[in-house]
């Protein structure tokens, strides 16, 4: 299993003011899986993603990702883990505004010490002709494609996407989801967080959160739909 969580809990703060963001989380995710994590605002989606990606630490339980036991890893292990195992894609794209599109992707290549060609990666996300532009010269959907190319540049086996379509119009969002789903076809594990149930219909597997707990884990109700059939 690429991702294994057992009895995971996450609390913020201490004593009577403590907030339980995650409780009793058991989750196994294999390579090649495309998983949508669905739940309303405040249900723990971002916390779950951050615990898997070692941006946050669990208060209890076992977190093992890409063979690394995050809960007991040293800071040095975690540094290697973040560079070589997980890549994040955020709602707000988080590109470097002063770097060109090509340089943004080169950053991902360098960070992972990979030998990938930024222009080939940009072509693979449909931006082969935009390498010399700056992020602010691109549309939102194009900027998210750059962020995806930067994540793919690392070659990392896990893509963690926190509301990646949150700032995009419907058509553009659907194209981004298609691109992300393709990456699971390439053998990665792809987790997409959303509060939008319609988006979850295109997943093979939906992990539904409510108040920090998993209340459902399986195919979407009515089965997986082609991306072209989504409406939101
Ligand atoms: P979601 O992404 O589903 O909107 P989050 O994972 O961001 O939910 O938050 C889950 C719960 O944990 C919420 O109640 C939120 O207020 C709380 N929370 C998240 N991060 C922190 C933090 N750094 N300090 C205190 N509470 C937090
Ligand atoms: Mg969130």
Question: What can you tell me about this protein's structure?
Answer:
A six-stranded mixed β-sheet has the order 6-7-8-3-9-10, with helices on both faces. 31% of the residues lie in helices and 27% in strands. The chain has a single domain, classed as P-loop containing nucleotide triphosphate hydrolases (Rossmann fold). It has helices spanning 45-52, 75-84, 101-112, 118-124, 140-153, 170-185, 197-200; strands spanning 3-12, 19-29, 34-38, 60-65, 68-69, 86-90, 158-162, 189-194, 205-210, 213-218. Helix 3 crosses helix 4, helix 4 crosses helix 5 (140-153) and helix 5 packs parallel to helix 6 (170-185). The two termini are 33 Å apart. The chain has 232 residues and is of the alpha/beta class. A hairpin with a 6-residue loop joins strand 1 (3-12) and strand 2. Residues 45-46 line the site of magnesium ion (MG). The site of adenosine-5'-diphosphate has 11 residues, from strand 2 and helix 1.
């Amino acid at each position: 299993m690429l991702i294994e969580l057992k009895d995971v809990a996450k609390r913020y703060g201490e004593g009577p003011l403590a907030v339980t963001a995650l409780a009793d989380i058991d989750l196994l995710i294999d390579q090649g899986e495309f998983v949508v994590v669905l739940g309303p605002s405040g249900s723990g989606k971002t916390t779950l993603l951050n615990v898997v990606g070692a941006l946050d630490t669990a208060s209890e339980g076992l977190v093992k990702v890409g063979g690394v036991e995050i809960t007991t890893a040293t800071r040095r292990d975690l540094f290697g883990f973040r560079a070589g195992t997980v890549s994040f894609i955020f709602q707000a794209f988080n590109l470097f505004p002063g770097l060109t599109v090509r340089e943004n992707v080169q950053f991902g290549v360098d960070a992972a010490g990979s030998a990938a060609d930024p222009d080939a990666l940009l072509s693979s996300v449909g931006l082969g002709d935009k390498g010399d532009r700056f992020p602010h010269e691109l549309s939102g959907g194009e900027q998210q494609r750059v962020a995806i190319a930067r994540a793919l540049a690392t070659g990392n086996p896990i893509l963690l996407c926190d509301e990646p379509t949150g700032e995009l119009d419907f058509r553009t969002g659907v194209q981004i989801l298609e691109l992300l789903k393709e990456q699971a076809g390439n053998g990665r594990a792809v987790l997409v967080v959303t509060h939008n149930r319609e988006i979850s219909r295109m997943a093979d597997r939906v992990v539904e959160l409510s108040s920090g707990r998993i209340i459902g884990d399986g195919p979407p109700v009515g089965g997986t739909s082609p991306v072209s059939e989504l409406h939101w």
